[in-house]
Amino acid sequence: MHKGWGVAPSQPLNFDPIEEARRQWHDHGWTEAAEGMALVTSIIRAQQIYLARIDAELRPLDLTFARFEILTLLSFTRHGLLPMSKIGARLQVHPTSVTSSVDRLEEQGLVRRRAHETDRRTTLVEILPPGRRVLKKATAALNDRVFASPGVSKKETAALFTLLRSLRANEGDFSE
Amino acid sequence: MHKGWGVAPSQPLNFDPIEEARRQWHDHGWTEAAEGMALVTSIIRAQQIYLARIDAELRPLDLTFARFEILTLLSFTRHGLLPMSKIGARLQVHPTSVTSSVDRLEEQGLVRRRAHETDRRTTLVEILPPGRRVLKKATAALNDRVFASPGVSKKETAALFTLLRSLRANEGDFSE
After folding, report:
1. If we measure between CA atoms, which residue out of B75, B44, B93, B87 comes closest to residue B138?
2. Among A124, B79, B116, B173, which residue's Cβ finds the most Cβ atoms within 10 Å?
3. What pTM was computed for the model?
4. Which residue, among A25, A43, A55, A69, would best test binding to B if mutated, counting the most B CBs under 10 Å from its CB?
5. How far apart are CA A50 and CA A5, in angstroms?
6. Which of these, B169, B72, B55, B118, lies nearest to A12 by C-alpha position?
7. How close does chain A come to B73, measured CA to CA in Å?
8. What are the pLDDT digits (tens) for B161-170?
9. What is the pLDDT of residues A76-107, one digit of tens each?
10. Does position A1 have pLDDT exceeding 60, yes or no?
11. Does B29 contact chain A (CB < 8 Å)?
12. Mean pLDDT, rounded, of chain A
């Protein structure tokens, strides 16, 4: 077990509040929606847990997970650069979010915007050496202290990934 | 399939970007962290998908999911009221978040704060009739258009819930 809670500095409850909500849903006759409510609420809670653990690692490096993801994506390309539009598509975030994250990364001196050599309508984002250095530290911290211990067994991790992949595909994130 | 994406108004990708990230993790030798990274990123993405669907239903009612959850919790009590501290513990959110949500609900005339009759240090929050009315609409909208169709089959919903329950328990949300 990790620090637990993550978002609320309290004692663990002695019952599962989401099970309790599900029971209430059934008691109110909302049977068709009860299991979905429990799932959606569980996903939201799991995200809060992980994000709190991630933020604890990234805050000392003055990064957010959104900015970490952009740096990671850029670092994986051959020349360390990508068009703005491609960053949004790959990270599945709205263009305005990409813009504000890139603004901040540029202020921090971790990336720079560049004009495309042939297509003047395209803005490229390039990771800079300080960006690569902070990314290396961030990746090591997240790998060691979050991703290597996601709170479930290897088998459960694989099962969850597969089920969530089906969810993401069904909701239109990607097609195969 | 629903509107898809939820957060990014684009075409679906023709590959799974999280699978691709996982492959990159393995290629970089971060093997111990690769599966956890894929899980954590999938949870964050699933949360974005659901939250976008929830927000689309609640925005016309001028509610957020956090405020919906507080109203729901109050409505489930015998007298429609709870101490502030209990709301935070049950919803597993930080006291400052509860305070700002209750402030907003009070401005909207949906709840009111009351002094506790015997314990003066305790502030109670009470749901008001307009709160019950908007909650009824919000619950119907979410039940019909989000919770009854969470994007996976009934069997997958149950499997996901069980796995996420194990994750939440291991991370210290509750003990049994």
Report:
1. B75
2. B173
3. 0.92
4. A43
5. 10
6. B169
7. 9
8. 999 999 999 9
9. 999 999 999 999 999 988 889 999 999 999 99
10. no
11. no
12. 92
With beta carbons less than 8 A apart as the criterion, state whether B40 and A58 touch: no
What would the pLDDT profile of B62-93 be if each residue is shown by its tens digit?
999 999 999 999 999 999 999 999 999 999 88
Gyration radius of chain A's alpha carbons: 20
pLDDT at A65 over 80: yes
Which of chain A's residues have a Cβ under 8 Å away from the Cβ of B172? 1-5, 12
pLDDT digits (tens, 9 = 90+) for A135-169: 999 999 999 999 999 999 999 999 999 999 999 99
Tell me whether residue B148 is exposed, middle or buried, using C-beta atoms within 10 angstroms of its C-beta: 0 to 12, 13 to 18, 19 or more.
middle
> Does the CB of A162 have a partner CB in chain B at under 8 Å?
no
Question: At residue A55, what is the residue type?
Answer: D
Contacts of A99 in chain B (CB under 8 A): none
How many helices (H) and strands (E) are present in chain A, helices listed first? 7, 3
Residue written as token pair 């909207």 = B108
Give dist(CA B104, CA B110) in Å, integer.
Answer: 9
Interface check for A29 against chain B (CB to CB < 8 A): the answer is no
* Rounded to 5°, angle at Cα B173 from B170 and B175: 70
Highest mean pLDDT among A5-19, A42-56, B2-16: A42-56
The sign of the CA dihedral A80, A81, A86, A89 is positive
Residue A116 has which token pair? 């495309």
